[in-house]
Amino acid sequence: MDGPTTGLEAWQRRERFGLSAVPHVSLTVATVLALLVDHSSPGRVLAVLALAGATALWVTWMAFRYTRWRNRPLPGTLSYVGLLGLLTALVLVNPMFGFAIISGYLYAFLLPAAWRVPGVVATASLAAVSQIGGIGNITAESWPVWVGMLTVNALMAGAFAFFAWRGDQESLRRKAMIEQLAEANIQLERAMAENAGLQAQLLAQAREAGVHDERQRMAGEIHDTIAQGLAGVVTQLQAAKQARDDETRRLRHIDLAQRMARESLTEARRSVRALRPQALEDAALPDALAATARRWSDDHGVPAEVTTTGTVRPMHPEVEGTLLRTAQEALANVAKHAAATRVAVTLSYMGDVVTLDVRDDGTGFAPELVRPRADGGYGLTAMRRRVSRVAGTLEIESEPGMGTAVYASVPAVPAGSPA
């Protein structure tokens, strides 16, 4: 992720190297030529070397400060004037230092925009002086030649400066893009770090939600199988105890208790393995409902009529299991609370929904007054949670003395569809 930052640093290093290498090479060549042409005295040689060394140090310093001074007119102008002064001194000492004049053109961009043309012209005039052989060769007869050289140098340097200016602008644009990419990468790294933390948080929440959902599922399954089965077993055993004087009735109640215990054990095992109810393994939903209602009627002595409307078609196991468990819970509530004389169960296949309606003519109750029971009553809560898990709705209609209707509506998800 540090590519743009590394690219910016590499670009700046190359720029500093170019701004330092070209002037140093040209200055070295000019110094060698100057010493070859003029080495008349040790003092003059020392002067040349001293000026050349000072100019080399000045150029090195400017190369390293170039980026900082580019947008600071005063330091850039002063450093350029200092460079031009050193070049002038070198040319006055020996015209061969005209080869080092290129430094003046390179660093003209340190000047404010309005002063760059005068800076280039001043540098071109210095180059013309070196080309004519020194300041002493500019006389009344030769000055037109010097002016001509100045003009040519100025035009050539102007063209060079123009293209260099275009390159400089492109360089600035690239640097700006690299800086933007570097900033974007920093923000991206921060976003990735935040996303990693958020992902970890979401995974933790998903695990907690999964655990909570499984606990609710198991609670509902335990209520629908073990709790109801044990309640039925207790009821039958109590009835058998009360029928001690009637051996036939006593044995019938004991047989019913054994059957309920076996069925509850089977359903509990299937619930642990998250399997559909046994009744739906052996029959379609309407037949399973009819069988459930028939056994309930036999156990409690209350007639239960099952009616199916619409075109029967296989539904997703979750949908059918939800409807069967809801019917079982509704019938269990009728047996425990309603004191009903008859029950009607209606299963309706309609377009995109399947509905279940369980009605009784019992005592009824006021649904809005029902509160969670201290003994852990779970019936209505279990039904609502179970139906909502398959995106369905559950409604309870009841009034004291007017019976109760439990109405469940779930999506008609065909068998074989994804869960």
Compile the SSE list and pairings:
Elements: H1 3-37, H2 42-69, H3 73-93, H4 102-106, H5 116-131, H6 143-242, H7 247-272, H8 278-282, H9 285-300, E1 304-309, H10 317-338, E2 343-350, E3 353-360, H11 379-389, E4 393-398, E5 404-411
Helix pairs in contact: 1-2, 1-6, 2-3, 3-5, 5-6, 6-7, 6-11, 9-10, 10-11
Summarize this structure briefly.
The chain is of the alpha+beta class. The protein has eleven helices and five strands, in the order αααααααααβαββαββ. The chain has two domains: 188 residues, no CATH class; 138 residues, Heat Shock Protein 90 (2-Layer Sandwich), CATH 3.30.565.
Low-confidence stretches: 1-5
Beta strands, count: 5
* Largest sheet geometry: 5 strands, mixed
Gyration radius, rounded: 50 Å
The level of helicity is: 55-70%
Count of discrete alpha- or pi-helical segments spanning 4 or more residues: 11
Indicate the mean pLDDT.
78
Give the end-to-end Cα distance, rounded to a whole number of Å: 41 Å
Structural class: alpha+beta
Domain unit count: 2
Account of the protein in words:
- Strand 4 (393-398) and strand 5 form a beta hairpin.
- This protein has 2 domains: 3-190, no CATH class; 282-419, Histidine kinase-like ATPase, C-terminal domain (Heat Shock Protein 90, 2-Layer Sandwich).
- It has a 5-stranded mixed sheet with strand order 1-2-3-5-4, with helices on one face.
- It is rod-shaped.
- It is built from 11 helices and 5 strands, in the order H-H-H-H-H-H-H-H-H-E-H-E-E-H-E-E.
- The model is unreliable at 1-5 (pLDDT under 50).
- The relative contact order is 0.06.
- Helices cover 68% and strands 9% of the residues.
- The two termini are 41 Å apart.
- The chain has helices spanning 3-37, 42-69, 73-93, 102-106, 116-131, 143-242, 247-272, 278-282, 285-300, 317-338, 379-389; strands at residues 304-309, 343-350, 353-360, 393-398, 404-411.
- The chain is of the alpha+beta class and 419 residues long.
